[in-house]
User: What shape does this take?
Amino acid sequence: MADAVPDPKTGIRVLLVDDHQVVRRGLRTFLEVQDDIEVVGEAGDGAEGVARAEELRPDVVLMDVKMPGMDGIEALRKLRELANPAKVLIVTSFTEQRTVIPALRAGASGYVYKDVDPDALAGAIRSVHAGHVLLQPEVAVALLSQEEANGATGRGSTLTEREREVLGLIADGRSNREIARALVLSEKTVKTHVSNILMKLDLADRTQAALWAVRHGLTG
Assistant: This one.
């Protein structure tokens, strides 16, 4: 099927990146029945995925980890360099933490397995598109252990009280819009707080911020 031309009125635009055509076809079949999700393109490896993401500007990229040539981890790093990077949801058949954790550290918003239920897959796409972070408890614990072992526990004393409130809501899985509503702030103000939090704690993204907050007891 030919790539679709992105239309912001159609809902969440999704790019599929997997080296197995059968997997891409299955994912597309799952998603095409969703009224608010549109598959705008496909790619067979990481390099093509980065190029297609730059061209099509999807909202969410479904990315395999193990691919020939440029793998999903390197593609994630490249995607983060784009002007308006898409949220990335890893779709993997590998359950080992040594496979999933590097992807999350490279900037993925979460992951699902390739045998995921179609409704759960659609829900995961909507969740990461809204700014949420999808982590299984055992993976969160492993990530926290790594951060602590590396001495990357952050500098929480530099946060303002408002920033700590925002950080706690990030850890609870709230999007910027939901945080704005909860704290009666503008979404722009929340984005500024999030940027300041990442800078002060020397963290790369919301996933690491959520983990930091869990580790330091800032969850609700």
Observations:
- The CA atoms of residues 107 and 172 lie 18 Å apart.
- Residues 4-8 have pLDDT under 50 and may be disordered.
- Residues 187-201 form the longest helix (15 residues).
